[in-house]
Amino acid sequence: MTLVLTHLSRAGVVMAADTAVTYPKPGDGEKGxxxxxxxxxxxxxxxxxxxxxxLDGFAELLSEFIxxxxxxxxxxxxxxxxxxxxxxxxxxxxxxxxxxEGTLGCHVAGLEMHEGELTPSFYHVxxxxxxxxxxxQPELVNAVPEYPPSELVQLFNDDDDEDDYxxxxxxxxxxxxxxxxxxxxxLRDINENRIDGLEKYTxxxxxxxxxxxxxxxxxxxxxxxxTTIYEMSTWRIEEGERIDAHIxxxxxxxxxxxxxxxxxxxxxxxxxxx
Length: 274
Prior knowledge:
The structure is a single chain. By secondary structure, the protein is an alpha+beta fold. It has one domain (3-267): Glutamine Phosphoribosylpyrophosphate, subunit 1, domain 1, CATH 3.60.20.10. It contains 5 helices and 14 strands. It has helices at residues 58-68, 75-89, 149-156, 174-191, 212-232, and strands at residues 3-9, 12-17, 20-24, 31-35, 39-42, 47-53, 104-114, 117-126, 142-147, 165-171, 237-238, 241-242, 251-257, 262-267. The chain has a 5-stranded antiparallel sheet, sandwiched between helices. The model has no long low-confidence stretch (mean pLDDT 89).
């Protein structure tokens, strides 16, 4: 499995993903693990694409798709073309009820023009149901405009909302969502100096800033933490045998600021290739 995280804010876009891939070994039925890049950059838009789920050759498909469509500089058109491509190479889900959130997909995040300014935008190209937008054919892959620029600008300007950002996560995220939902609330209280016993730390802030570099560090920390939790836990147990953690390998990150500058980084992590 995978953990792909996308953070959208006034400052721009940050996407992060692990690099562990679990696969069945031929012949013996056992599982092996290798590392594989899951984030890909379309500089010409600019955009970053991160994949989750199971599809043989997903990485090669994305690389070739980006190269073949390097003349497409519109994020929505790019996402729609990716929908067409994934529909070509995947079968419809057999019973959406068994896989309501889908079996595979791509985070497609970049910039679109809104009221004369480049603004973050996010499409989720995936099969299955979508929690934000109704889709007519959830058994197929759909390019869903989950967070268009107009909606993000409204959210960023909402004084009644404590959060001036959006986080999207996919892959093996259930335990992650619970843990970091609780930690997020605790960090908000720490940053607002609302924790008894920490009153003297008036300048303490975690993460230290809202800039893209700080968010990049925080997303990397989240994936590192989940990797460690899986490695030291009994989370993966099958017939008495320990199954290697599904999250691991080095962490790739991509930042896109609102001027269109793209930067990628790699953070060391646990989960050595086996």
